[in-house]
Design goal:
Length: 310
């Protein structure tokens, strides 16, 4: 049984994340968690003692705590109700922490979550690149798989597109799919960049008046495409060994591997993109600017990021 930790704050993105989690992991055991900043203590309110008596300060702090508890309980109950209606087996937790991602990471480890689920902040890709958001912080610090869901995603019936580059990180992502997405078809995508179409030297060869140079450029481009296709086939073979239904694709990435995977996902009508967060090439490490980060920041469909060993 897959165990999910669903970060729920009552936002549209959180509601969308609930629906996506239920579609990708039907019947999963789910802990719906709301993170609330702790109310101030009496010591923190010491400056107010200049004008107010301690009893009034205590009453004010008690009221703040009660209101914070009411809001948090309302959010977790709402999240649990949505999760249960979607077919998930939901329980709730309220976390008191100033930094949400730290609290979520600790709880994920405590409950041995197979996946942490959260929505993206903001209404568009530009809003999501803000450092400090819960999704971005979890991506860079979490040691468990992470599902990040944009608020406006709706297509949930398609396959999962898995970025692949023959690295152990990419294979770990496919192992995650076999363990938790076994009913969902997988499209193994090997993004590649043509050295002919995307370099000045390659363009010079392609537009040369000498036929031999043109033929050389075409042959070189064909070789690179074949190498990428062979790599995708390697991923398909590995996925099938794991018991997954899989097929391959090799999108060319003239404008970057992130955009190539996004195009491949759109063409496949994918429900989500799956990548490893360590390795080389298309699914390199979680350093800012990597494909995993780029997908989380820019994607208009859910992204599952599977970290490698620390």
């Amino acid at each position: 049984m897959t165990r999910l930790l669903l970060a729920y704050d009552g936002s549209e993105a959180a509601r969308a994340a609930t629906g996506v989690a239920a579609a990708l992991f039907p019947g999963a055991e789910t802990v719906v968690a709301t993170v609330q900043a702790p109310p101030p203590s009496l010591e923190a309110a010491a400056m107010a003692r200049i004008a107010l008596p301690d009893t009034m300060i205590r009453d004010g702090i008690a009221n703040m705590r009660a209101e914070s508890e009411r809001v948090a309980r309302g959010r977790t109950d709402e999240g649990a109700a949505l999760s249960t209606a979607a077919g998930l087996r939901a329980t709730t937790r309220i976390l008191r922490e100033i930094t949400p991602w730290r609290a979520l990471r600790a709880l994920a480890n405590e409950i041995s979550a197979d996946l942490v689920v959260c929505g993206t902040r903001g209404e568009g890709p530009l809003d999501r690149v803000l450092l400090g958001s819960t999704a971005a912080s979890l991506l860079h610090h979490a040691d468990r798989p992470l599902l990040v869901v944009p608020a406006d995603h709706a297509e949930l019936d398609g396959p999962v597109l898995a970025g692949y580059d023959e690295s152990e990180g990419a294979r770990d992502a496919l192992r995650f799919a076999a363990a938790h997405l076994g009913r969902r078809p997988i499209v193994v995508a090997r993004a590649w960049r043509s050295p002919v179409r995307n370099t000045l030297r390659g363009q010079a060869l392609t537009h040369s008046r000498i036929d031999m140079f043109k033929e050389y450029a075409q042959a070189l481009d064909t070789i690179w495409a074949e190498i990428a296709t062979e790599s995708a086939d390697d991923g398909v073979g590995f996925a099938r060994e794991l018991g997954l239904e899989a097929r391959g694709t090799a999108p060319e990435s003239g404008d970057g591997h992130t955009h190539a995977l996004l195009r491949g996902a759109r063409e496949a009508h994918a429900a989500a993109i799956l990548v490893g967060s360590r390795g080389r090439g298309a699914v390199a490490s979680t350093v800012l600017g990597s494909v995993a980060s780029g997908l989380v920041n820019a994607a208009t469909l859910p992204v599952i990021v599977v970290p490698g060993p620390a």
